[in-house]
């Protein structure tokens, strides 16, 4: 893939759940009995971050950018900004209230004073992630290779803090803390579908960045 190659956008959902661990986070202790009883696959992604429950209600976005592309900034923090802002535009268009994008200073302040569930992906904040009503609705991560960059976003339509707590062996207070800091889009804007999210995000990317990314959508069995 060269710098003149097209950026590629891919949407994914799953039909069976997985507990996805981030590459740079130390692996959390899991409740092996709960994981086995609920037939949840344990996976590891190539990008950083805390554990994520990828179930049928999480819509995942991968954007592959060739090295040198104008959207693949060398600054790994700044590289997220355009994607977070486009996703925020899409959520506003879908009627999600009080949408805001987290800047670097606020994200650093959150890391300096982490909450009870900050070890989960949706329990902490990173620059250019998206909140609605003060609760996280978009998680971002990335990985770099010689050929280019992979930016990833996860947008839950529904969030299940209790199930994630159970799989990780955490208590009710941990689940309540996660529910207070994160939300699913449908909780805030009932009726929004995955197709709505895809359409508005791609429209926002075209309007904001003046690009149409080659797009694919897949449903994985796991």
Describe the structure in brief:
With 222 residues, this protein is an alpha+beta fold.
- What's the count of strands? 10
- Series of H and E elements: EEHEEEHEHEEEHHHHE
How far is the first residue's CA from the last residue's CA?
Answer: 28 Å
Would you tell me the structural class of the helices and strands? Answer: alpha+beta
Radius of gyration: 17 Å
Q: Overall pLDDT, averaged?
A: 88
Query: How many individual helices?
Result: 7
Strand order of the largest sheet: 6-7-8-9-5-1-10
Strand content: 25-35%
Helix share, percent: 25-40%
Main sheet specs: 7 strands, mixed
Shape: globular
Low-confidence stretches: none
Overview of this protein structure:
The protein is of the alpha+beta class. Helix content is 30%, strand content 27%. It has 7 helices and 10 strands. The protein has a 7-stranded mixed beta sheet with strand order 6-7-8-9-5-1-10. Strand 7 and strand 8 form a beta hairpin. Helix 4 crosses helix 5. It is globular, with a radius of gyration of 17 Å. The two termini are 28 Å apart. The model has no long low-confidence stretch (mean pLDDT 88).
Secondary structure: elements and pairs:
Elements: E1 8-14, E2 18-21, H1 32-37, E3 41-44, E4 52-54, E5 58-66, H2 81-93, E6 99-101, H3 104-112, E7 130-132, E8 135-145, E9 148-156, H4 161-168, H5 172-181, H6 185-188, H7 194-209, E10 214-220
Parallel strand pairs: 1-10, 2-3
Antiparallel strand pairs: 1-5, 2-4, 5-9, 6-7, 7-8, 8-9
Helix pairs in contact: 2-7, 4-5
From the structure above, extract its key features.
222 residues, alpha+beta, seven-stranded mixed β-sheet, three-stranded mixed β-sheet, 7 helices, 27% strand
């Amino acid at each position: 893939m060269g710098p003149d190659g097209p950026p590629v956008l891919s949407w994914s959902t799953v039909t069976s759940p997985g507990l996805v661990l981030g590459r740079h986070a130390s692996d959390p202790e899991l409740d092996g009995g709960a994981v086995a009883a609920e037939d949840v696959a344990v996976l590891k992604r190539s990008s950083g971050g805390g554990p994520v429950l990828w179930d049928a209600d999480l819509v995942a976005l991968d954007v592959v950018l060739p090295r040198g592309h104008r959207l693949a900034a060398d600054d790994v923090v700044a590289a997220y900004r355009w994607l977070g802002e486009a996703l925020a535009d899409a959520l506003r268009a879908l009627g999600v209230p009080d949408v805001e994008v987290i800047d670097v200073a606020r994200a650093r302040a959150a890391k300096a004073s982490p909450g009870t569930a900050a070890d989960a992906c949706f329990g902490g904040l990173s620059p250019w992630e998206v909140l609605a009503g003060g609760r996280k609705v978009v998680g971002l991560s990335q990985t770099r290779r010689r050929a280019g960059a992979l930016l990833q976003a996860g947008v839950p339509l529904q969030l299940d803090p209790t199930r994630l707590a159970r799989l990780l062996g955490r208590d009710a207070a941990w689940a309540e803390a996660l529910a207070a800091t994160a939300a699913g889009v449908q909780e805030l804007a009932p009726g929004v579908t995955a197709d709505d999210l895809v359409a508005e995000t791609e429209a926002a990317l075209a309007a904001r960045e003046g690009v149409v990314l080659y797009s694919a959508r897949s449903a994985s069995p796991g």
